[in-house]
What does this fold into?
Amino acid sequence: MKILVAVKRVIDYNVKVRVKADNTDVDLTNVKMAINPFCEIAVEEAVRLKEKGVATEIVAVSLGAKECQEQIRTALALGADRGIQVQTDQLLGSLAVAKLLKAIVDEEKPDLVLLGKQSIDSDNGQTGQMLAALAGMSQATYASEVNVDGDNVNVTREVDGGLQTLSLKLPAVITTDLRLNEPRYASLPNIMKAKRKPLDVKTPEDLGVTVSSTLTTIKVEPPAERQAGIKVASVDELVEKLKNEAKVI
It folds into this structure.
C-alpha cells in the first residue's frame, strides 16, 4: 500500500503570533516554523501503518515556497520514504491546495491519502473533503482510529452522540484528529538519513494546475486582549459582582 501524506508549513504552535505594524499580514521575521500539528499526526499514522506491515511506501507532500522542504525533511526523518514539493510563492487557498494534491494523486496513485483535519493558521478544515471530491475517492474526516482491513479501511471518529465508525473502500482520503496518536520525535540518526532521501520539486505548471488566488486579505488584526480575572472570597460576593458589576443576572 502506498500512502500519500500532506504536510503544511505553519508557525510553531509554541510561538506567539505577531501582526505586522501595517496590518497587512502576520509577521514571520525570525519566527520558528514547523509542521502543522494535525499533519504531524497524519505522518505518525502513516509510519505506524508501515511498521505494522500494512503500508509499503510513504510519500510526504508539501506545497509552497522552497522553505517548506524543511517540513518535508522532517516528515522524512519521522519515517516517510520520499518527498514531493510543489513550489509556488502564490497564496494558496483550500481549493487550490486540493487541486494540486489531486494532480499529485493522479501521478502517484496512492491507496490512502492522510491529511490533518485542519491547519492551525488558516483553520479552514476543507482541503481533505475537497480533495476526496475532486479525486472521486472515499473520505472520512476527524479520524481518531484507523484500521486497514484488506481493501477497506475502518475509521472511527467523534460525533455529537459519541463515536461513529465508517467503513471505506480504498483508495480513500482520511483527515486526522488529535486523538488518533501521539507523534514521535525524530532521532538524530534519522534526521541525518532524511537528508539523503529523494525529494522531487515540481511546479503547478508541471501539474497543469492554475493556482491564482481568489482571496484578498483586507486587514489583519490581533484578537482583543482578555481582561484579567479576579478571585472572590464567597458565593455571596460572586453573586453580587455578577449582579451589580457584570450585570449578567
About this structure: Helices lie at 37-51, 69-78, 94-108, 127-135, 188-194, 204-207, 235-244. The chain is about 30% helix and 25% strand.
